[in-house]
Design brief:
Elements (H helix, E strand, L loop, with lengths): L1 H28 L5 E4 L2 E4 L1 H42 L7 E6 L4 E6 L7 E7 L13 E8 L10 H18 L4 E9 L6 E18 L6 E8 L1 H5 L1 E6 L2 E3 L5 E7 L6 E4 L2 E9 L2 E5 L9 E8 L11 E6 L19 E2 L38 E16 L4 E10 L3 H14 L5
Parallel strand pairs: 11-17
Antiparallel strand pairs: 1-2, 3-4, 5-6, 6-20, 7-8, 8-9, 8-19, 10-12, 12-15, 13-14, 13-16, 14-15, 16-17, 17-18, 19-20
Length: 427
């Protein structure tokens, strides 16, 4: 109300100034003449010009103001009708109304049911799965309620420390390759809160799907451990081969991708992909020319020259003329896999890790698991940025998460940072 009065005063001053300016220009500069009669008074010259200007501008302003007031009235009536619609929604005894204005949904929930948390926004950058970019940048905003129990002593600092402990456990289990952390304030100046910001390098499996019931192809992705990205050898068969007799061997494990190659004593050999956990490798005459040990590793095409763990098989003389010699490094039948080998002896192998709970659970929800044929798969390194905001005033913990492949992350994360800068918390 006060701002409206101030605006009216400013308009009045503008009308007065405009009338005087018009009178000066018309009758002072242009030497115009005008006469008029107002009741028993006779007016002329610049006074008539000023009065006419004031009357015209005042009339225009009043009409514009009336139109604006009519628009405000219509807006208020619309809000009242919406309120009546919401209040008129079916509500059994003991239920309360929940309204989602963004999705235009109104429903009633039992009064003793409490919000558990959930996803607020889930967005994806534009792009088609047929494009060369197999991983589109994804953004998700979700929340968890803070325990309202007065006996709970948890603080924001304690919760952030817990998250960092979980992150460290995920790094040890292979779901996080490396990470960095920092603290930043989020939510604007009025209601900002100190937040934990984590940037992590991870691995993902991406599937391209096409729903038979629609024409739109979609991506489904999930975080995987390093063993599924680099590959992991569990077993080699046979564990021994004879000098001078090239043959094929079978490697079993997990994370063997199509078009992978086998490194035999660091030399590339073709690996026939039999299944996700089985490949067959043909040894060449060069590999079995002399007795000794063959070092084996899998190199997947997406790993940029980094290998899986190492395994060994023994090259022996023919049984009838085989001399007594040194034993194989370790393991049954002269074989050893990398979880028995110190990591320092294989600088290119992936760290020994096993699946674990945590960030490995995260996946895109833009599509369900496929039902229509075998989808294409891609494996790649991605970078995730997660900002966790513990908002005590709102009794909620907000999660702002962004993922993109490592090639595009530097550019695309700039837009995510703009989203974070625009975030505000409304009390």
């Amino acid at each position: 109300m006060r701002s409206a009065r101030l605006f009216d005063l400013m308009v009045v001053l503008f009308i007065v100034a405009s009338g005087l300016a018009t009178a000066y220009v018309c009758f002072g500069v242009l030497s115009s003449q005008a006469n008029g009669r107002f009741e028993q008074y006779s007016l002329g010259g610049a006074i008539v010009g000023a009065v006419v200007s004031w009357s015209l501008l005042t009339t225009i302003y009043l009409r514009v103001r009336k139109a604006s007031e009519d628009l405000d009235d219509l807006r208020r009536q619309n809000q009242e009708l919406q309120g009546k619609l919401i209040r008129g929604a079916p509500r059994p005894d003991g239920f309360v109304i929940e309204v989602d204005e963004r999705q235009r949904v109104v429903l009633a929930r039992p009064q003793d049911w409490e919000p558990k948390g959930g996803i607020i926004f889930q967005l994806e950058m534009p792009g088609k799965p047929e494009d060369k970019d197999s991983f589109a940048g994804s953004f998700r905003c979700s929340f968890l309620p803070i325990d309202k129990n007065k006996d709970s002593k948890q603080t924001a600092e304690q919760y952030y420390n817990y998250q960092l402990q979980q992150l460290e456990a995920e790094a040890k289990s292979g779901y996080v390759q490396s990470y960095s952390k920092e603290f930043a304030r989020l939510g604007g100046e009025a209601a900002s809160a100190e937040s934990l910001k984590v940037i992590a390098r991870q691995f993902a499996r991406v599937k391209k799907l096409r729903d038979p019931g629609s024409l739109r192809a979609q991506r489904v992705w999930e975080i995987i451990p390093s063993t599924e990205f680099f590959g992991w050898i569990y077993d080699c068969a046979p564990p021994q081969v004879v000098v001078g007799h090239p043959t094929f061997i079978t490697l079993r494990g997990n994370g063997f991708h199509k078009k992978a190659v086998c490194r035999v004593n660091k030399k590339s050999r073709e690996a026939k992909f039999v299944g996700p956990g089985v490949v067959e490798v043909t040894l060449e005459l060069e590999d079995v020319a002399n007795p000794g040990y063959l070092e084996l590793a899998i190199e997947n095409p997406e790993t940029n020259g980094r290998w899986s763990n190492l395994a060994w098989i023994t090259v022996i003389e023919a049984p009838h003329d085989r001399p007594a010699g040194p034993e194989a490094p370790a393991g049954d039948g002269g074989q050893q896999v990398a979880h028995e080998m110190p990591a320092a002896e294989n600088p290119k192998e992936a760290p020994a890790m096993t699946p674990a709970e945590g960030r490995g659970k995260k996946s895109a929800t833009s599509a369900e698991s496929p039902q229509a044929g075998e989808p294409d798969e891609a494996f790649l390194e991605i970078v995730s940025m997660t900002v966790i905001c513990y908002q005590e005033a709102l009794e909620k913990i907000f999660f702002f998460e962004f993922w993109d492949d490592s090639r595009d992350f530097l550019e695309s994360s700039d837009e995510f940072n703009r989203v974070l800068a625009s975030a505000r918390f409304l009390n």
